[in-house]
Amino acid sequence: MPDDIIVYDIETQETFQDIGSRDPKKLHISLIGAYSYQENKLISFVESEFPLFWRRLEQAALIVGFNNHGFDDQVCAAYFPEMPKVPSFDILEEVYNNLGFRIKLDNIAQATLGEGKSGDGLKAIKLYREGKIDELRSYCLDDVRITKEIYDYGKLHGRISYSDLQGVKQVSIDFNRPLDKPSENLNLSLF
Length: 191
Known about the structure:
The chain is α/β, with parallel strands linked by helices. 40% of the residues lie in helices and 21% in strands.
């Protein structure tokens, strides 16, 4: 849909250790989860449906993710070479640029929203390998929902929260600033 904002997350079929490389473009996607602001709904895509997701991205005004510049966008670029041309906002990259260190999505979700993630990327790989696609879909879409809610909170308040050994802290982020292309030199891989 033209001018849509898409929040998305991918799950992979394997880890970097499995493929013997740290190159995200060599990983294979098991499932893509997305939220469309125009449709106000969560959507998932299995491999045979990836072209439908790519068409959405081609028309999107913005894509939003958590570590999408360092991981998801790079994995997707192997499937969709136009990926780097899509305007995008990476919450983790913004946190890193403001604080100088990374914070896990689960940490930000708990401190900002009062709820955490339902697992980690290794759980998603296990679900895929066991053929539990409905559970994988649920896990991925939960991450998308959490990322969307953090993005919404950040746009409304201009900040998000995280916790460290001293307690809950806040980081100011301009969620409404003009977007640049993703940083080429920032690799924030998960594995």
